[in-house]
Each structure stands twice: as structure tokens, then as C-alpha cells.
Design a protein that fits this description.
single chain; UPF0145_YbjQ-like; four-stranded mixed sheet; alpha+beta; Translation Initiation Factor IF3; UPF0145_dom_sf; UPF0145 protein GCM10010274_42260
């Protein structure tokens, strides 16, 4: 499995900029649209659970679960961007992830932030 399968984030040509900061250098916030989020819940399949159980006895990375979490986070972020775009935003500030267990059924991942319209200064 290559490094690209363990990462996430945006492409350099994304039409909605997503940042973890409260502002974007060289840009000014023109309008605050409000909170946006992308949510997904994923269950673990039996193979991953058995593999994780065996791996926990000897230690090491749980690659199947890592890959599933990366895919889940990327899906939540895509949904956040879709919502921001639909509301007319071109940026999301203060981007964060929240991950919780969902009633022993799986993992809930919520990507959230503040949708805004920014423009370049100067």
C-alpha cells in the first residue's frame, strides 16, 4: 500500500479552499455563511475486526482499519466541501474532524468548519 492511500486533503486546484486556520494570508473574508459539515458513519467489516483482533495480540499497525479511517475522513471532507459549495462559499475556515464510536456499530466521522466567501487582498 502506497503513501497516497494513507493521506487526504485537497487537490491544488480545488474550487473551495479548506484550511484549519481562522484566516487565509493574502485574503479577506467578505461574508460569513456559517457552519458546514460532512458526516459519515462506517461499520467495520468482519475481516478487519478479525485481523485487528489478531494484530492486537502481537502489536503493530492495523493497516485495514487505517485505510478505512482515511477513506472515511476523505468522504466526510468531500461532503463538507459539497455543502460549502452549495451554499455559495469559496472557502472553509477553522476546519476540524471529530471522530466518535457510533453505538458499537461503527465509527462516525464529522468534518466541520465555517463556510465563507474570501477574496484576494491587494
Amino acid at each position: 500500500m502506497g503513501i497516497e492511500e494513507y493521506g487526504g486533503g485537497q487537490s491544488p486546484r480545488a474550487d473551495v479552499l479548506v484550511v484549519t486556520t481562522n484566516d487565509v494570508p493574502g485574503h479577506q473574508v467578505q461574508q460569513v455563511i456559517g457552519e458546514v459539515f460532512g458526516l459519515t458513519v462506517r461499520s467495520r467489516h468482519l475481516g478487519s475486526q478479525i485481523g485487528a483482533g489478531l494484530k492486537s495480540m502481537i502489536g503493530g499497525e492495523l493497516r485495514g482499519l487505517t485505510k478505512t479511517l482515511v477513506e472515511t475522513r476523505n468522504q466526510a471532507m468531500e461532503r463538507l466541501v459539497e455543502q460549502a459549495r452549495a451554499r455559495g462559499a469559496n472557502a472553509v475556515l477553522a476546519f476540524r474532524f471529530d471522530v466518535t464510536e457510533a453505538a458499537d456499530a461503527g465509527t462516525e466521522v464529522c468534518a466541520y468548519g465555517t463556510a465563507v466567501i474570501v477574496s484576494r487582498t491587494g
